[in-house]
Amino acid sequence: MKRELTKLYPMVQFKKDTWEIDEFDCASIFLLIGAEKAMVIDCGMGIGDLRGAIEMITDKPLIVVISHGHVDHTGNGRQFDELWIHPADQAAPIPQSLERRRFDTERIAARQKGCIGAPYTMFNLYPYDINVDLRDPEPDEKMPIIHDLNDGQQFDLGGGRIVTAYECPGHSPGEMIFLDEQSRSLFAGDALNFNLGVGSVPLERTLRYMKRMHDLGDKYDGIYNGHHDFRALGMPLDDDCLPTVIELMEEAVAGRYTPCETPSFWGQSIPLTKERVDPMASAPKMYANEEKVRPKRRRVTLRKGRNFLGINPDLIYENDQ
Prior knowledge:
The chain is an alpha/beta fold. It has a single domain, classed as Ribonuclease Z/Hydroxyacylglutathione hydrolase-like (Metallo-beta-lactamase, Chain A). Helices cover 19% and strands 21% of the residues. The chain contains seven helices and 15 strands. The model has no long low-confidence stretch (mean pLDDT 92).
């Protein structure tokens, strides 16, 4: 008998008709409900029955937008009929490699349990079965219709709730953010975080878009990114995050930066070793032509206060391309 997929996602309605759904520490999915339609922002790693959980909250027609085309934001995309994605991020398959999604999910679960050891490693602290709930699409889960998502595009959810999409390339070439003026919320995907990796486009270009995000500040009261690893579920990023990222980028563009060594944010190896081991060195490919779509790039880490910024030192200026 076919087992039912989990719908037991932790979730919170942090503003009226505005929900954050936690995909078991792998990603955050946001649900914005208007008078006529509802918007889903991102589809996570692909654990469980995301659509089923959403339909327990609302029966309104769904508009599903993808902040960017990475493995942990498109995973359950085939549960929906149509997706809106920026053209620059449409090359990757939906979903991406099950082997890679499982690799990342297992390491996130281990990281969240910490380094205490046996008492916690003996128990499953998440309400999903990785062998059942993380899977390749079923035969009836066809590839959704993909629509282009463009800068300035607006989605009317009814009742005066209009969500505007804005480009913010850096973490990926087609990274998008979403401004909901009715709830005064900005949904940033992976465009912003206290541990932020950029470098898919020249840094000075990313800096221009980060400044635009800052300039939109009179239209929102908080920024909600696509992972709640540096904030509580339902809470925005602290106000110092964006200004500090802008400062770090400005210093890098001006040539004034000093790379630093940091522990892996994927967690320390157990048992502890003197050698610095990259937990992602053995990660499986996300998909067959990954090197062509997402070419390898050099990365150095900059730090200021609580912010860590990974940049590509070979792609700072537009003429570096």
